[in-house]
Each structure stands twice: as structure tokens, then as C-alpha cells.
Recover the amino acids of this structure.
């Protein structure tokens, strides 16, 4: 997982509430291998028309926002099903941060686990940010994870909250497995001590250590 520290990047406004995971990553693409990437399918039915051409009305198809790495959305972003491919698609496309008034709970947790930072700000703040981005297409936002702040194009600084455990994982670039493996030596010592203390438990779990039963038994 890529380290997330401070991100200074072009941001795109998405003026659409209730963007669920089906809109972010349509279910017909979920059988695709993770290794093959999901960047071509994120917002597929919003980015493209029925004949496969780009939808000129979708914000990410505008030249100023085509390479945005931050998305400023509206209310209830990422609701719907629990598909992990939704944050994968945004990440593969190049997004590292989504700012919204609120998120679908599972989408929010999945994002943190794969390295996509979801930032929750007041709905009025999100609306003001989107207005600035529309006013000056190509404007940048600065997301400072250590300080837990978002700096708007006009210089206004907005604080956000994040679980300390998830924040540490992003700062170190470690997912849940990586964070656990940091304690590999301590886990090995604990396992040795536990086995020594409860040796009878492990012997009972190995049927090959017990003598075979005879007819008189």
C-alpha cells in the first residue's frame, strides 16, 4: 500500500448525492482480476455513453479535471453494496482522496484498507469547496494527513477526524496484514511461551502422538 502523508493535487467537484458503489464500479466488472486494474471501469456508466464514447458532461472528462487525484463529492458517497472494487477503481484511476459530507460505512472502511483516504467534512464546506473548484477549474487542494487538515484553494483550512489506527496505517503505507506483521517477533515469542505453558493442549491436538486403540480398549 502506498504511503499517504500530504497530498497537494488537482481536485474535481462531483455534484451528485447518493453515488453508490454500483455507480462507482458497476457489478458486471467485479469478476475482473485485481492485478488487471479497475481504472477503465470506475464511473463507467457516468463517464461513457451507451455507444462507448466519453460523456462530455461528466466532470472527469473535462480537461481541467482529467488528472484529478482528489474528488469532492456530495452526501452519502459510496453507499450500497460492500464491493471492495469501488475504492480499488478510484485508486487505480489515480484518486488518493475523496472528500464528502458522509460515506457508506463499508466503503469508508474499505477505502482506508487499500490506501484511499476518505475525508468527511460538513456538507456546507463540501459545497463551498466544489463551488471554488468550478470557479477555478484545475485548482488544487492540500490534504495534510499528519495535521488532519484540508486547505481550500482560497487558503481556508478545514480540520477532519480519522481513527488513529487507520491514520497510522496510511502514514506507514501498511494494510491490516502489514500492521500485524510489524509485531512478528513478539508474536513468535508469545507463541513459544504459550506452547510451553499449555503443552498438553497441543499434544491433544495431534492424534499421531496418542497410541492407537486396541480391541481391549
Amino acid at each position: 500500500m502506498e504511503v499517504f502523508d500530504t497530498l497537494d493535487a488537482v481536485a474535481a467537484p462531483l455534484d451528485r448525492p447518493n453515488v453508490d458503489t454500483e455507480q462507482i464500479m458497476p457489478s458486471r466488472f467485479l469478476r475482473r482480476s485485481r492485478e488487471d486494474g479497475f481504472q477503465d471501469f470506475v464511473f463507467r456508466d457516468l463517464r461513457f455513453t451507451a455507444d462507448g464514447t466519453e460523456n462530455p458532461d461528466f466532470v472527469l472528462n473535462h480537461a481541467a479535471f482529467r488528472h484529478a487525484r482528489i474528488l469532492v463529492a456530495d452526501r452519502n458517497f459510496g453507499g450500497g453494496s460492500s464491493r471492495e472494487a469501488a475504492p480499488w477503481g478510484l485508486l487505480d484511476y489515480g484518486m488518493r482522496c475523496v472528500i464528502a459530507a458522509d460515506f457508506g460505512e463499508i466503503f469508508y472502511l474499505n477505502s482506508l484498507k487499500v490506501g484511499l483516504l476518505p475525508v468527511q467534512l460538513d456538507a456546507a464546506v463540501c459545497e463551498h469547496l466544489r463551488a471554488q473548484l468550478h470557479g477555478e477549474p484545475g485548482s488544487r487542494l492540500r490534504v495534510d494527513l499528519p495535521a488532519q487538515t484540508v486547505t481550500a484553494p482560497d487558503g481556508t483550512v478545514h480540520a477532519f477526524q480519522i481513527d488513529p489506527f487507520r491514520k497510522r496505517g496510511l502514514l506507514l503505507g501498511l494494510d491490516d496484514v502489514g500492521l500485524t506483521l510489524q509485531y512478528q517477533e513478539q508474536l513468535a515469542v508469545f507463541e513459544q511461551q504459550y506452547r510451553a505453558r499449555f503443552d498438553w493442549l497441543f499434544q491433544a491436538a495431534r492424534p499421531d502422538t496418542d497410541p492407537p486403540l486396541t480391541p481391549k480398549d
